[in-house]
């Protein structure tokens, strides 16, 4: 109690030195602050700055002597139209607290953003005597915000552009899909139709309303409930492999029997297989009918030509036997050429008949085991007798009996050898190589002729196909290799070609060896 009494009686009082020390400590504390601090005198005109700490000097670039006495607005320079200034004026006029972000300019003119906290200091009489302002440099934050806004604006612009491009692409794709002369539909995992193009609707006589959203098998009163189609969608497509050229024949109640070629692919996006399936349906009914009619024509024409040709050949042979001894060389030449061209025409008609039999499934094979190596040797000897400019060399052996139609296999070899000689007129040799590979016998015919381009190799076994450069230089119909491939195919073998332009070609085929030797492997 004595101590309190002494304090109340004024016996303990702060000295001027104590006050100076406290003020010095306070000043050091303010100067040590990271934030810029100013104090203004609200009792003086224009509310001038009467104090600033070192952080404010560093922040503004001005010295203390250049700051004291100025109103805070000098930091905004000519940038006086900021909304933040109106907020500050209103707070000062009402003696209130406020917080603003304001653009200020350093002494060197550089812009910096200032986060300003203003608070009034009230005297004993309740009047605002001063304002204290605490300021932080938020230039980096503002720049980040501006960059973020700019990035956001850019992204929004890009999204709009991408959306526009996507819409245009969709419209473009839609226009293409609608003009494609092929039926296209997209189905979901439950085999419900997601979309269908106009060609599908017109071909199968259905409307868009009764198609989209309907199960594929339910379309047109279950017209599409086709066992082959079910097999395709439930067994083949789940493997994620595309289905190409899958033939389906079906009798539709309203449009009749249709032969269709189906191609199906899972829709892929960003490397992931999605659940939707694109199904392309090509109606090949008319095309197949045209091909059938053409095959019928070839068959009929070949048979009709065969009879008079046989008669003419007989007369020519009779004339050859009855040639007078005193006949001139010119007459004998005409007779020989006539016989030669009759043989060529006879071979051509025989090939056309073979094509007709293959197309109608009437190619008859008489499979009897025969000595493969002996057949090759005899065939080569027959070809070698007819050619004087090429030497046919046989290499290797198989030593096996092959259960096949010997005459047709000899026909294949004859065609391959004839082609090797025909398309390599400058080459002096043709190589025939025989080997036994696993449970197959393999034969290869190699020439050093003009070769075949990769593009033509893909089509060379197609019926009536001839490469452009070959067509111009060598006559023919392009059915020989087709017949060869079909003969080998009907023997469960394979025929293929390996070739480079101007470096020659190698045609090879394999045939399965008879069952007895197959079991011994």
Tag the structure with descriptive keywords.
elongated, 25% strand, 45% helix, Helix Hairpins, Beta-Lactamase, 521 residues, alpha+beta, five-stranded antiparallel β-sheet, 4 domains, single chain, disordered C terminus, 17 helices, 17 strands, HisK_dim/P_sf
Question: How are the secondary structure elements laid out?
Answer:
Layout: H1 2-8, H2 16-31, E1 36-41, E2 49-52, H3 54-60, H4 64-67, H5 83-94, E3 98-105, E4 111-122, E5 128-137, H6 139-179, E6 183-187, E7 193-196, H7 198-203, H8 219-222, H9 227-236, E8 243-252, E9 256-269, E10 272-283, H10 285-321, H11 329-360, E11 368-371, H12 372-386, E12 391-396, E13 401-404, H13 406-422, E14 429-437, E15 440-446, H14 454-457, H15 468-473, H16 480-490, E16 494-499, E17 505-512, H17 515-520
Parallel strand pairs: 12-14
Antiparallel strand pairs: 1-2, 1-5, 3-4, 4-5, 6-7, 6-10, 8-9, 9-10, 11-13, 14-15, 15-17, 16-17
Question: Nutshell version of this structure?
Answer:
A hairpin with a 5-residue loop joins strand 4 and strand 5 (128-137).
């Amino acid at each position: 109690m004595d101590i309190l009494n002494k304090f109340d009686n004024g016996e303990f009082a702060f000295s001027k030195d104590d006050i100076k020390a406290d003020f010095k400590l306070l000043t050091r504390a303010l100067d040590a602050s990271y934030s810029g601090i100013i104090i203004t005198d609200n009792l003086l005109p224009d509310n001038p700055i009467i104090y600033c700490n070192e952080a404010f000097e560093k922040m503004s670039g001005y010295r203390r002597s250049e700051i004291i006495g100025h109103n805070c607005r000098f930091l905004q320079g000519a940038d006086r139209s900021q909304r933040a200034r109106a907020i500050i004026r209103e707070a000062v006029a009402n003696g209130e607290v406020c917080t603003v972000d304001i653009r200020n300019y350093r002494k060197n003119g550089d812009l910096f953003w200032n986060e300003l906290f203003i608070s009034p200091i009230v005297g004993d009489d309740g009047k605002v005597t001063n304002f204290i302002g605490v300021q932080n440099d938020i230039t980096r934050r503002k720049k980040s915000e501006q960059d973020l806004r700019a990035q956001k604006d850019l992204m929004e612009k890009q999204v709009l552009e991408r959306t526009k491009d996507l819409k245009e692409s969709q419209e473009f794709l839609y226009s293409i899909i609608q003009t494609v002369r092929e039926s296209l539909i997209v189905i979901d995992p439950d085999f419900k139709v997601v979309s269908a193009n106009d060609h599908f609707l017109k071909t199968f006589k259905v409307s868009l309303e009764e198609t989209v959203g309907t199960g594929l098998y339910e379309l047109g009163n279950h017209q599409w409930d086709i066992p082959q189609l079910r097999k395709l969608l439930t067994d083949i497509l789940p493997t994620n492999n595309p289905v190409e050229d899958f033939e389906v024949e079906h009798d539709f109640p309203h449009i009749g029997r249709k032969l269709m070629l189906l191609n199906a692919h899972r829709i892929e996006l960003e490397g992931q297989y999605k659940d939707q399936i694109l199904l392309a349906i090509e109606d090949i009914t008319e095309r197949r009918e045209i091909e059938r009619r053409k095959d019928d024509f070839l068959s009929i024409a070949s048979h009709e030509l065969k009879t008079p040709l046989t008669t003419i050949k007989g007369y020519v042979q009779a004339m050859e036997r009855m040639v007078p001894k005193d006949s001139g060389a010119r007459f004998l030449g005409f007779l020989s050429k006539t016989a030669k061209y009759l043989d060529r025409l006879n071979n051509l008609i025989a090939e056309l008949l073979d094509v007709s039999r293959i197309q109608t499934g009437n190619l008859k094979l008489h499979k009897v085991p025969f000595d493969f190596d002996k057949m090759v040797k005899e065939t080569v000897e027959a070809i070698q007798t007819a050619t004087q400019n090429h030497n046919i060399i046989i290499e290797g052996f198989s030593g096996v009996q092959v259960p096949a139609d010997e005459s047709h296999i000899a026909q294949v070899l004859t065609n391959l050898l004839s082609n090797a000689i025909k398309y390599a007129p400058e080459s002096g040799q043709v190589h025939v190589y025989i080997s036994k590979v696993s449970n197959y016998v393999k034969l290869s015919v190699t020439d050093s002729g003009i070769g075949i381009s990769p593009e033509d190799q893909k089509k060379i076994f197609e019926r009536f196909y001839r490469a452009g450069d070959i067509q111009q230089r060598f006559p023919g119909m392009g059915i020989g290799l087709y017949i060869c491939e079909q003969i080998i195919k009907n023997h469960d073998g394979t025929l293929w070609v390996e070739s480079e332009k101007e470096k020659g070609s190698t045609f090879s085929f394999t045939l399965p060896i008879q069952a007895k030797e197959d079991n011994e492997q």
